[in-house]
Automatic annotation (TrEMBL):
UniProt KW keywords: Transferase
Molecular function, one GO term: acyltransferase activity, transferring groups other than amino-acyl groups
CDD domains reported for this sequence: NAT_SF
Organism classification: Bacteria, Bacillati, Actinomycetota, Actinomycetes, Propionibacteriales
Domain N-acetyltransferase, chain residue ranges per copy: 23-188
SUPFAM superfamilies: Acyl-CoA N-acyltransferases (Nat)
Pfam family, any one: Acetyltransf_3
PROSITE patterns on file: GNAT
Origin species: Actinopolymorpha rutila
Protein name as it appears in the record: RimJ/RimL family protein N-acetyltransferase
């Protein structure tokens, strides 16, 4: 006996859940680590890192950090971001600090400096948000960004994040204090909520 139902309407798995208009999220490959580590240590990226003072870590520690972020063996998930058309590595994105009771996760993303300003980051954030809400069943996605990172803030707003508050003078960079901006999005505010 055969099932006459249209498989495109009955398949519960969204095969494009990790694809956007210009990017695709995929598992971390060992070959990604050299570029990710080099970008992480790039002086154009270092000021935007949240953890501790801006300094260079030994590459072995950074490699292990990316492996841990991308292990995907628990509630948190991390992905390499690649160009959809060429497969070129662009950066890394993650949903982490997942709180199952509250159905909340924190979003983090970074791109290699040569890939900034081309729309890849905004597209990757859209894909991560869609994955979090439509596939993981999250209720809330939040993030933290330094106030001087105006391109990132504009990108997050474009996707639908709203500013929820600030930690005033929370980070010291280049001899000055800067605010840390807290942003969030609820599933009910997600522009793609009707797509799941």
């Amino acid at each position: 006996m055969t099932d006459s139902a249209d498989p495109s309407t009955t398949n519960p798995v969204d095969l494009d859940a990790l694809a956007g208009a210009s990017v695709r999220l995929r598992e971390l490959h060992e070959a990604d680590l050299a570029s990710l580590c080099a970008w992480w240590a790039d002086p154009r990226i270092v000021p935007f890192q949240v953890a501790g003072p801006p300094h260079l870590r030994p590459s072995d520690g950074v490699r292990e950090m990316f492996r841990t972020w991308s292990a995907n063996d628990g509630l948190d998930c991390g992905f390499s971001i690649v160009a959809k058309d060429s497969g070129e590595l662009l950066g890394h994105g993650a949903l982490f600090q997942t709180q199952p009771k509250d159905r909340c996760a924190t979003l983090g993303i970074f791109l290699g400096p040569d890939h900034h300003g081309q729309g890849f980051g905004t597209d990757a954030v859209r894909v991560l948000v869609r994955y979090g809400f439509a596939q993981l069943g999250l209720h809330r996605i939040q993030l933290e960004v330094f106030a001087f990172n105006q391109p990132a803030i504009a990108s997050y707003r474009k996707v639908g994040f709203v500013e929820e508050g600030r930690r005033r003078s929370a980070v010291y960079r280049n001899g000055a204090w800067h605010d840390e901006v807290l942003m969030g999005m609820l599933r009910t505010e997600w522009p793609g909520q009707g797509m799941s």
